[in-house]
Design goal:
Blueprint lengths: L1 H18 L10 H39 L20 H35 L2 E3 L2 E3 L1 H4 L13 H12 L1 H9 L3 H11 L3 H21 L4 H21 L6 H74 L1
Antiparallel strand pairs: 1-2
Amino acid sequence: MLKQRIKILVACFMMFFCTTTFANYPVIDVSNLMNAINQLYAMYDQINATIEQVQNTYQQLERQAKAMKNMNWDNLQASFAEGNWSDNAWENIGNFRKNLTNATSAINDNLNLINEIKNTLENKAVSFGGKKYSIGGLFGVGQYGKNNLLNMPFNMYDYAKEAGQEAIKGWTEGLTYAQKERIMRKWGLDPENYGYVKLVEEQANELITTLITEGDESYYKALIKQIGENHQAIMDISNAAGESYTAQAQATTGAILALDSSINNVLFGIKQWGALFSKETTRKQVQEEAQREAAIDRLEQLELEAQKKTANINGWM
């Protein structure tokens, strides 16, 4: 099935190549591309750090909320922050009981939601070329971390050479001499190697499209929105909590807002730079391979010439 898809991709590329010129093809600034990839890694590191921060804070808030159940009910007023105790003691106690129950429930729900975000990022995987990829795995995190963004071009190139060799060979044989010359002048690659580069780019695009499906941003946004709504119940008990609880709850509000932005930026960055990075990495790899092969061919040619000279000298003697 995958080999058939490779053949289709090559056929589509051949049609594109035969009808398109390269005069306006953008020149890639490799240093900027690498900076973009490094920034993506830094952003995902921040996502991981934020998730861990929120997890740890909620665990601490959970312990503090449980401790409030053991407070001195005979002198409940002393436990409230100044100005938050009304004249109706029963109303204060009733509200506190309700808020404490709601806060405990919200903390537990939010721990589950933040764990769901982490689990989805790391373990929602798709199979491609005999390997599994996940969002977290692209950045070396989780069980699929070996198939990361830096290794993806090499994985796909190995697969393309195995599954696409026959199709690419058929394509190159159908090119005219002028078309082959155009490829060499533009890319410094022979048509076969150029075919592999384009094939890897198409594979990377297909993987990323499959991995980041329509609605993923909305899915994470909905989870984070629910965390934010639950978090209000956690804040409502601040009127009877100590400064530590209040400060931690407030800090978590900012972390939740930052998480929403960070996830959206990473998903957008993968779609913008992932396939381009794979293509440029593969282009560099096949160029280096071509140079090594040319050096080997040149050495073999020199050895043959040396053997001929030796044979000629022996013949004269």
